[in-house]
Amino acid sequence: MDRTQTIIRGTDITRSVADALQFISYYHPADYIRYLSAAYKREESPAAKNAIAQILVNSRMAAFGRRPICQDTGLVVVFAKIGMSVRIDSVRSLTELVDEGVRQAYLDPDNPLRASVVLDPLSTRRNTRDNTPAIVHTELVPGNKITFIIAAKGGGSENKARFTTLNPSASVSDWVIDTIATLGSGWCPPGLIGIGVGGSAEKAMLMAKEVLNDPIDMFDLLARGPSCPEEELRIELYQRINALGIGAQGLGGLTTVVDVKVSTYPTHAASKPVALIPQCAANRHVKFTLDGSGPAVLTPPDMSDWPEIDFGSTLSTNARRVNLDTLTKEETATWRAGETLLLSGKMLTGRDAAHKRIVDLIDAGKPLPVDLRGRVIYYVGPVQAVRDEIVGPAGPTTSTRMDAFTEKVLEATGLYAMVGKAERGPAAIDAIVKHRTPYMIAIGGAAYLISQSIKAARVLAFEDLGMEAIYEFEVQDMPVTMAVDVEGRSIHKSGPAEWRQRIAGL
């Protein structure tokens, strides 16, 4: 074994972390693009195929434009395996070096990333403004190098992480399937599922998070067959999860996951800890090694990995065009769950913090700063614009977080329609039917593509909320899918149910 001590400069760690975070903000891993392209080719559900097409087109555009794949540029998670013959030349701790890299990456003027981290999660929840601190996991290993995995985890998928302790004889597979069926689509499929089994509660969660960064190899595994219990479980879960028919963005289809990863560890005889963590369609991570020779050199994927998709002609043929500036209740009542709409005209934005302020003003009997009557609202928190951009990547956020506000807002304001991501809960659907205010979805994971539809943007209210302020966007041919119509029909219920039956019959 080489016991030669390696000196790695702290500045190289910081520079490498910053470069890696910029890199993963606009480059998908090549293996994910290949697997998603294969899923696109075999998908038979029109709605799901359209969703995958948008994700792939968005990915290619983000790679060319070097702008974020998704507006939620993620909580930074770092796994560092540090060789015991390494000395880090710095007066700063490793965590401080990493956080400086995060700060540099997220404040980069050429490609600023959205800061989503808040201090004091119990009360003020004040934004740190630079996305620090990162979540750093370290392990000492033999050797004279440091291997880093840098990941950026979006809130939509992170919020769907689950943990349980099963009886030793209970089925891990059954628990996973039952759990996936309850998650909805806020985690933005098609993606991956990481499973950690064993150890303790925190060990299982850590394994589930780390294993998501392994190379995607399900097709190879299916071709050669399993060689251990973990691989048997991977295949079983891959097939059973896809058989649920959830499909891309929960619209119903053949592919919900492109891979399932499983990691295990010895555990107490009385225990079977099991953790489940989904990975969304952004799937941002990169691995590199520092050996003392300088910062990491990251190789972009080959642009030929992306398929050529004529997305525009597909939309023009199958979509209904909507003028938001002349919209009427009568027109919105004709929209049906599952159809594609192209929105043009002026729309408002507003997500969690804005909705909370609106409801507080309603409760206090005070006037709202913006008249919502007859308007369409989009649940979005865009990335900061650069150069000649109107707005940065502007994909939807998970709509269920607005469910608690929906009845009161619709009752008091006269909104005509809502746009977000994923399904709505029963209370929101009841409000949709009561007030005949339909709900549409934009595709999670298509933020840069969506931003190209936005031709003007200005802040109207709550400017202090930053990306959560109320904007007015002027859009042209912004693609959305009708999710819940005024009769309460939901594509997130009918789509998976239909495709679950179809898959069962194959």
Overall morphology:
globular
Strand arrangement across the biggest beta sheet: 12-13-14-15-17
Query: Low-confidence parts lasting 5 or more residues at pLDDT below 50?
Result: none
CATH architecture of the domain at 311-496: Alpha-Beta Barrel
Main sheet, how many strands, which sense, barrel? 5 strands, mixed, barrel
Describe it.
With 506 residues, this protein is of the alpha/beta class. The protein has a domain at 311-496: Alpha-Beta Barrel (fumarase), CATH 3.20.130. The protein is 34% helix and 23% strand. It contains 16 helices and 17 strands. It has helices at residues 10-26, 30-42, 46-65, 94-106, 155-158, 172-180, 201-211, 218-224, 229-243, 311-318, 329-332, 352-363, 403-413, 426-435, 447-451, 491-505, and strands spanning 6-9, 75-83, 86-89, 135-141, 146-153, 162-165, 191-198, 257-265, 273-279, 284-290, 320-323, 340-349, 376-378, 417-420, 439-441, 454-461, 470-484. The strands form four sheets. Strands 12-13-14-15-17 form a five-stranded mixed barrel. Strands 4-2-5-10 form a four-stranded mixed β-sheet. The protein has a four-stranded mixed β-sheet with strand order 6-9-7-8. The protein is globular, with a radius of gyration of 23 Å. The termini are far apart.
